[in-house]
Structures
1.
Amino acid sequence: METATALSRDELRDHLVRTKIAGDVATSRENNLDHYRSLAVRDPHYMFGLTMEGDWTYRDILALMAKSAGVVADAEHRYGQDTIDPERTIDALDAMGDVIAAALGRPSPRILIATGHPTGLLTTHLALARLVRARGGTLLAPGEQRAFASGGLGRKRRIRYLDDVAMLDDGGGLVHTHDPAPMQAMIAELAGQLPDLVIADHGWAGAAGEAGVQTVGFADSNDPGLFVGEAEGKIAVTVPLDDNVLPRHYDPMNRYLISRVESGL
């Protein structure tokens, strides 16, 4: 469990902007808008295993991302810098912390943690796994070594757990993935004994939310799927942030989130 002093809200806001976790982020406006268009035409790569009940046109998705993540709302801003509002990031961290605290407050909570971003957000998921263990929760590990053919080049990818956090590996390293299939397989293996909570990102989060599991997740400004899932009630909380800055930059955010969870226990 994390023991260092958590930053205040103002200190965290300054840190998020300085490290580009929020504020003027590295993800370009062109990339954001391209992904919003892709989701609007229901490209499975950007749906993260979620079905979308609403029409969700390109302009609807842009408006949602402006509201939920703080990207520039003007549809005529097509090139250059885009933003994530650090206030929205912190508000979502607070909401996520409250959901995690409520789950940990149940008798013998069963929690599943997974990430498709092992080069960035893995450090956050590992910190949360330590917290769950310290607070007496059970971390589930279904589907270990289950193989999938996604990812191209004919390589098999397998579910692998590192300190109870699920990821995919391709035999030589942990991989970035949007694929919902691993979480779908994990949910199926649990045979109706669903977790009390899933903490995840990308397709890991989307597939869990689609299966009716209470889910909280992290998402970049170019990953609108989870924000749509939240708007439709399938994802409890989505935290907007750059999901692939240097791992050490997430540590103050992790401490802030863990402090919020502990304050609710």
Note: The longest helix spans residues 86-104.
2.
Amino acid sequence: MSQTPDRPADHGDRGTDDRPAPAIVAVPTYNERDNIEQTVAAALAGCDHIDVLIVDDSSPDGTGDLADALAQDHPRVHVLHRPQKQGLGAAYLAAFAWAAEHGYGTVVEMDADGSHDPADLPRLLDALDQGADLAIGSRYIPGGAVRNWPLHRLALSRGAGVYTRAMLGLRIRDVTAGYRAYRLDALHKLQLDTVDSGGYCFQIDLTWRAAKAGLDIREVPIVFTERRAGASKMNGAITVEALRNLTRWGVAHRLRQLRRAFSRGRIEE
């Protein structure tokens, strides 16, 4: 059974917390039965200021049933069931809408597979407390690192970052990072109803939108570890989508820059 309370439960010390509104950690799942219980337990233990929302895309391995069992045992755990696998971006968009509907002020994106350390949660939330609109858990700034990743995955991730910064002019070191925290009021500025990125390109898309909207984006160093169990969802179609969208956005961005430069030159004449 999905748990969809009318409002977030009162968890004792939340009334004295100086955060303006509660935070929820959104964890998309598809065939993550071997990981989800440990991930949820670690998240709840790692930070007492958060709830957890498991967004399951009708996993055939029974992840959704296990998520319901966790929700029955833990009042801070909620489940959003979706009828089919629709991609990472759609899962997070559904989580954002659910969080807004249920009164949360902050949404954290976290992988279900154990690659994101819940011990880093307080530092991501602290960055928002200090004024950030978006806090990115970064592998590629001083203090960040990647553990146990195969060389080709690391090269793909690094290469995507270099290409993104070159095409879009972003200064963010880890634009593809999936461990991040958003203020809900800042998300409303990103025109989420026009987002159509389905795979990991979703992270680049929202980073680019946040930069164009003038949001305060801060990177927090994290150590990323290869998944505990199961198979990565990364595939060729996801890579192609990211490359296609990124190239399209980059070309449009550079053309706008050229038009502005040309217009300024005409005015100066």
Note: Residues 1-20 have pLDDT under 50 and may be disordered.
3.
Amino acid sequence: MTDSNFRQLSDRFFASPQIGVADIDSARELGITLIVNNRPEDESSDQTPGAEIEAAAKAAGIGYLAIPVTHAGFSVPQVEALAAAIENDDGKILGYCRSGTRSTLLWALARASMGDDPSSISDAAELAGYDTSPVRPAMDMLAAHNRD
């Protein structure tokens, strides 16, 4: 297996900094069945275009979904889209962005909206090297709303 920067957040979800076409083989070997691109196109000149990642993923039998997140923050439709992807895909999912942080924070919000405990979500993210404190109040709100 080639070296990758995939960080495991749960048994089914991984986050990563920007991936390239060469990372698709590593994803397939890991059992990834869906790649979620959380970068807006043309965010930086050094990023691999989403269309290239999508084509390589599909050629490898891996699904692809774009849920771009800008530095402006997260929206309910983005959280709902990732939650639906998690619920509808039985395999492993890889989310990526510039550093993996936006993918992790979106995952944390989606899991909280699905009823997972925010503290457990934060602990899992921390083990992978990510900090969920920027979205912790929203996680708590989403989890509380799910319990109502």
Note: The chain has six helices and five strands.
